[in-house]
Amino acid sequence: MLSILFLLLAGVANAIMDVSSEDKFKNNFWNKTKSWKNKWKINKGGRRIKEDKKRWYYLWKFTPKYKERFPLSSSLLVLITDGWHLAQFFMLNLITLAVIFAPGYENILGLGIWDFILLRLAFGIGFAPLYNKLKQKSNSSKIV
Known about the structure:
mainly alpha
């Protein structure tokens, strides 16, 4: 029964994401076409400022293309910058919980919290490399 509730709530979050990306909300936090500015430092002309150095909070290994408004605002803390990412956070976590609470689910690591972490990591590991590759490709040419 909990799985059904979690999936119902995940559907609500997904609906919020879709409406957010359609420019339907008046509040900029919930409007995806405007809220992207919450992640980045913006110059007086309304453009993002290019990043010129590696940051300590990325262990000097990763450099976002643009200067972040605050540390980790374009990565780990993106969910507090805009409603679309906040709704995505809830949707993905609720789907993960639905899997863990599904009848017949057997814990992989023995404890629910570790299974939750493992499943979320699996999603991230599947998502990030392909997303980055497709994004690089889209910057050089259109994706079919």
